[in-house]
Write a structure and sequence with these properties.
CATH superfamily: EAL domain
CATH topology: TIM Barrel
Low-confidence stretches: none
Oligomer: single chain
CATH class: Alpha Beta
CATH architecture: Alpha-Beta Barrel
Shape: globular
Number of strands: 9
Mean pLDDT: 90
Helix content: 25-40%
């Protein structure tokens, strides 16, 4: 397999990064369905500080470095001792050829013994993406046995169009739809409608940014099974954080 243009012409990354992990909880089991790998700076700096250093020239190297660090870090942290999947954010515009650009990911997973069937690749609807290019990536990844997820659904302008054009496995609701959902009938109606639509499409829904038991109760009532947020665990550098067992507000009051 020859190198693609990103391998041949892209710049070296030029800066260090680390990975933090945050669990996505399956409310039916109370355990981690997956751990999302989140990029951080070498001293724990937030994602924004890292992403500000990404340019068009080093974007490919950054995407590849994040994948490798996420896989190696998750295995070092003990993900193989769990049944959880590993969810990795990727940049569609850094994927020149799905088959060529995935080779280092496959090699890394094989070296550390992580089955590729346990990988989910997330992309955000905020990034300006050519839909045909993204459709090719999602289709290729599906054929290779990976799952894909639309991240931050509801934050951008193309969410429904992406759902119509792409056969993704997971849809992650943006935090802005979740915040205060317990006191907003409009948010509950919107989220409930998205969940119903996702079920009809065979897509799993994850609610991001859950911070209160009241939000959790509203989401459970709406039919959400998978949740992520500070209520359960904050991202932790280099380790899989402990999960706080949480019951919805209604259950706590019973």
């Amino acid at each position: 397999m020859g190198k693609c243009v990103g391998c041949k012409d892209g710049e070296e990354l030029g800066f260090a990064l680390r990975i933090a992990f945050q669990p996505i909880i399956d409310l039916h089991t109370g355990s981690a369905y997956a751990y999302e790998a989140l990029v951080r700076g070498p001293n724990g700096e937030g994602a924004a500080a890292v992403l500000s250093q990404v340019t068009e020239k080093n974007r490919y190297s950054f995407d590849q470095a994040c994948r490798v660090a996420a896989i190696k870090g998750a295995v070092s942290a003990g993900i193989l001792d769990t049944d959880a999947l590993l969810s990795i954010n990727f940049l569609p515009n850094a994927v020149y050829s799905p088959l060529a650009c995935i080779q280092l990911t496959l090699k890394t997973a094989q070296e550390v013994g992580l089955p590729t069937s346990r990988l989910i690749f997330e992309f955000t609807e905020n990034e300006q993406i050519d839909v045909e290019h993204l459709r090719n990536i999602v289709s290729s990844y599906r054929q290779m046995g990976f799952q894909t997820a639309i991240d931050d659904f509801g934050a951008g302008h193309s969410g429904l169009a992406l759902l119509a054009n792409l056969e993704t496995d997971v849809l992650k609701l943006d935090i802005e739809l979740i915040r205060g959902i317990d006191t907003s009938a409009r948010r509950r109606l919107i989220v409930g409608s998205v969940i119903d639509l996702a079920k009809r499409l065979g897509v799993r829904v994850v609610a991001e940014g859950v911070e209160t038991t009241q939000e959790l109760e509203a989401l459970e009532t709406a039919g959400v099974r998978y949740v992520q947020g500070f209520l359960f665990a904050k991202p932790a550098l280099d380790v899989l954080p402990s999960i706080h067992v949480v019951k919805a507000a209604k259950a706590l009051a019973a």
